[in-house]
């Protein structure tokens, strides 16, 4: 059960980064030689940061499960 939380975390990161990558490619295709607007990049990074808290939460749950599991075994 402890290993499930980190695996979910890795899967979430992969899905999240794939979405960011698609967005960047879309921006590059739309703007062509003009380049990408810095505000668009900033907005994308802020979205990535807010979604990465889910990754942190899943990793924390896995850590807590491991700590409780080790603590429960010694009693």
> What is the count of structural domains?
1
How many β-strand stretches? Answer: 0
Mean pLDDT: 76
Rg, nearest Å: 18 Å
- Uncertain spans: none
Helical content class:
over 70%
C-alpha end-to-end distance: 20 Å
Q: In words, what does this structure look like?
A:
The protein is mainly α and 75 residues long. It has one domain (4-73). It is built from two helices and no strands. It has helices at 4-31, 38-73. Helix 1 (4-31) runs antiparallel to helix 2. The radius of gyration is 18 Å and the shape is elongated. The model has no long low-confidence stretch (mean pLDDT 76).
Mind sketching the topology for me?
Blueprint: H1 4-31, H2 38-73
Helix pairs in contact: 1-2
List the defining traits of the structure above.
75 residues, mainly alpha, 2 helices, 85% helix
Quick synopsis:
This protein has one domain. Helix content is 85%, strand content 0%.
